[in-house]
Amino acid sequence: xxxxxxxxxxxxxxxxxxxxxxxxxxxxxxxxxxxxxxxxxxxxxxxxxxxxxxxxxxxxxxxxxxxxxxxxxxxxxxxxxxxxxxxxxxxxxxxxxxxxxxxxxxxxxxxxxxxxxxxxxxxxxxxxxxxxxxxxxxxxxxxxxxxxxxxxxxxxxxxxxxxxxxxxxxxxxxxxxxxxxxxxxxxxxxxxxxxxxxxxxxxxxxxxxxx
Length: 211
Known about the structure:
By secondary structure, the protein is an alpha/beta fold.
């Protein structure tokens, strides 16, 4: 049995990552490729519990270093209990956010250095990186519109931060993609869902040749 692939969707608020992850899984399943769709923080009972601590609106919240530690702990459990076992079974893992979100949010937005975030990832998750990271990029106007439509009951603790914070996050994602073009595929998310989906499938052609 061949090792499964690991695909991560990244991007800011309102990028449509969750929708595109579901569409990709359906397309792969139609080709006979078994998939697991998951998310971060989350994916396992322990990581979902940490998600509640991170994104819930109770209490005073967390400073950037505490956030980074909590995300790293959730990711470690996720990697060990779900991602690596699924890949060992030959399944493709499709994850809504992974370590690059910590690099962008707690690093670019929160002020931690990239080296600090990656050190936590090396310790907690063996430095695992996706085979392909799909960065869905949307304009600020589209992001605001989608986030408002999605968050009718209010944004979570991180999504609700101000525009300057989210601008830093977007800039960080762009830097990562420019620095690692072999791992990232940049896809415009401003268009219709089916147009974005076609862009996703096009980016996966090199990996599908190995499936």
